[in-house]
Amino acid sequence: MATSATGTPPVSAGAPDPKLIEDLVAANRILAQQGVVDGFGHVSARHDKDPQRFLLARSMAPALVTAADIIEFDLDGNAVNAEGRTVYLEIFIHGAIYKARPDVRSVVHSHSPSVIPFGATGANLRPIYHMSSFLGSGTPIFDIRKKAGMTDMLIRNNQLGADLASALGDHAVVLMRGHGSTAVGDSIPQAVFRAVYTETNARLQAEAGKIGPITFLDPEEAKLATATNNGVITRPWELWKRSVGKID
Ligand code: MN
């Protein structure tokens, strides 16, 4: 993991809102239940007390995350309170995106399977229905080989994190060739919503393509549908949250 220049941990922003921790723990379990993450993948939230800090579980399977597993980090990936706990190798995805995108308050990184063929072929992932209208602004593909040559495909340092954030630009989702994808949102529920419906859209788009030519949402339809969806994200969120049981 990254270490700070002084070798001492950065100062804590203080205790986050307990509701934020509860939602972050719920997001971990929801993403596992929805098939977006498995033993791998992670979800973070920007700290509510300091935009220069974010919260992410220690390195573990998301379905097993509890409040006690959440660690605070600065945007370079330095842990404030790791206390011997190991951190995800790809922590740098999160801080780099929070640095580049002040509007983003939650980041989901996954290897959700239906999305992989799009990153690998370069086929354009586009909104096939209204639930995935947030894809309407485009889904860039990050190819790590073009930036770093031969690697193990992981975002292992801040430079690769910055390159990924640059590829994401102002979009909702960036595909990662030969690896996975990363979705962002202005809240935990929105980032989770986008990660779930990116996976569903990829599956439906591949299926529809076998049947016949696809009429995708027009960019204007996508814009209008996104405005509607943003007003009702709490509906699936409350359902998903209840379905993962009591958060401890
Ligand atoms: Mn990964």
How is this structure best summarized?
This protein is of the alpha+beta class and 248 residues long. It has helices at residues 18-33, 92-100, 116-121, 144-148, 158-168, 188-211, 219-230, 234-243, and strands at 42-46, 53-57, 70-74, 106-110, 141-142, 173-176, 180-185.
Describe this structure in words.
- There is one protein chain.
- This protein is of the alpha+beta class and 248 residues long.
- It has one domain: L-fuculose-1-phosphate Aldolase, CATH 3.40.225.
- It has eight helices and seven strands, in the order αβββαβαβααββααα.
- It has helices at residues 18-33, 92-100, 116-121, 144-148, 158-168, 188-211, 219-230, 234-243, and strands at 42-46, 53-57, 70-74, 106-110, 141-142, 173-176, 180-185.
- A seven-stranded mixed sheet has the order 3-2-1-4-7-6-5, sandwiched between helices.
- It is globular and about 55 Å long.
- The chain starts with 17 loop residues before the first helix and ends in a 5-residue tail after the last helix.
- The model has no long low-confidence stretch (mean pLDDT 96).
